[in-house]
Structure formats: structure tokens, C-alpha cells
Amino acid sequence: MAMDLRSLPKVRDSWSFVYAERCRVDVEDKSIAIHDADGKTAVPCAAITLLMLGPGASITHAAIRALADNGCMVSWNGEHGVRFYASGTGETRSARNLYRQIARWANPDHRLSVVREMYALRFAESIPDDATLQQIRGMEGARVRDTYARFSRVTGVPWHGRQLGQSWATLDPVNKALSSANSALYGVCHAAIVAAGYSPAVGFIHTGKQLSFVYDVADLYKTDITIPIAFRAAFDGAEEIERRTRVACRDLFHEKGLLKRIMIDIERVLNASANAIEDDAYAENAAQPGGLWDPVEGIVPGGFNYAADAPAASPEGLGS
Q1: Domains of the chain: residue spans and CATH
Q2: What is the enclosing helix (H) or strand (E) of 48?
Q3: What pairing do the DSSP bridges indicate for beta strands 48-53 and 57-59?
Q4: Using 50, 70 and 90 to split pLDDT, how confident is the model at 318?
């Protein structure tokens, strides 16, 4: 029986992520099984949003198909889980939210309003209406700097600034923890963005990268989630700090309902309801190929040989 993607659990109700390395992943019944040195672990693929595969991991074709059928995104990550190499597909097959995102991005006034809304979500107090974007960036920089300093004081972990572009071995424990935590956060934000049908590349604050929108969304949560986790992990010592950080992220993502927050916050910053596109024009039907754009008629049926008589300009009753 073909799976109707609309019947799947909503991504915001799923677990956040599972990280696996030095293992083999295959399919078992309707789940996947992860085999490593400690034995076998069964994972219900319909209940997770993202499977992160680290070094030494292999996965079967059947497992990839099971994960894709259940709307679970798969990413291939580098050592320590902090490099992103590639990803599989997400849950949705509709372009509706992508069109909304592009419409906001392409209009300079709308884009600026999205940027201001993203910054506003990060502050406890409101941003003055007359504040320029340069001033807002300065306020954001001061807020992040103060957050690092505050958690350094609370935990007693020394803070000498963010260490970027250095080899992993030369990083101090708190910077290793920050990189591990941010990698997990990026992965979950990426999975949520793709699952909801948005583009990870079309950023509003960040630009020019394939993950620009992922960075936009992830920055909403760093001071609330990854920075506290990193300093607490560093306080507990350097041993297995990457693994402990990932476990702490997994637990806190669930505790704070991160996936639900991501979906709500994206809808809020894009103000989708103010730029709604008629759902009927882009109705999702997994059994049909989708419509064709026409400058006069709008959406005309796809999956039809137009050398024959053309059908009515409606997404209903498409040929196969």
C-alpha cells in the first residue's frame, strides 16, 4: 500500500535526533536497527526526525527507504558530529511553504520585517521601532557576549572567546562542547525546515550558503540551549565531552519541545498567514504529479499529454 505522507505524525511531535557512528544500520520489521560493538538497538523510524550518521557508519538501501517513507531525514556528518556533508529528503512533498518563504525573501521590505522579527525573538525586551539594522546587530552581539560571560561566571569555566577555524585537538573543552552542541542544533533545525517544506538555503539574516536559513533559525535558540549545555559539559571535564554534549542536547531538545518551537517560530517570523497562498492551488496528493504553471490559467493539471485534448484547468482528477 502506498503511504500517504499527510497521515504521518507531525514533525513537531517527533523525537529530535539520533546520532550513530562506527555501526551498521539496517531495517528490521517496520523499524531500523543499529548494530555496533555494544549490540543491537531498534529505533522506530516513524518517531524520529533526524538520523545523524558519523564516521564508520554504513546503512543499507532498505533502511534508507524505510526512513524516507517515514519522513525521517538522514544526514552524513564528520568526526565528532560537527561537520555536515550531505542529507536525504524530508517529510513534505508540497512546495507551498517554499513559495511563502521565497515571497518574503524576494521583497526587501518583507525581508527586513522578517529579520527584525527574528532578532526580536532573541530579546526579552522589545526592539525600538527606530533602531537601525546595524544597531540591532550591535545589540545582538552584546547579548551573546554577555551570555558567554555569565555562564563562565556561573560555572567557573574560563572563557577566552570562540575558537573557529582551528584543529579539533587545539580547542579547549568548552569550545569543543559548543561545536558539538551547535552541530546537533543545526541538524535538528535543518530537519525541521526541510520537513516543513522550506529551503535551508534561503536565509534572511545569513546569506550565500546552502544552510543560511538553518543558521537563521538555530541562532534563535543558542543562548537558551547550546551555550548553557556547553558550559555545563565543560564544567564536568574534558573526557567524552562530545558524547556527553550530544546526550545533553537530545534531552534538553525534548524537554523544551524544540521541534514544536521551531515550527511555531518559523511561522511567526515569516508571518505566513499574512501572505497565504490558496491551499487548493498547491494541494498535496502523493498519487498525483502536481500541477503545471500557466501565466493565464494559473495552475493546470500535470501528468497529462497535452498533444491530446487539454483537460479542465483544475488540480482535481489528474491523469497518471
Answers
A1: 5-87 (3.100.10.20), 96-275 (1.20.120.920), 291-320 (no CATH)
A2: strand 48-53
A3: unpaired
A4: very low
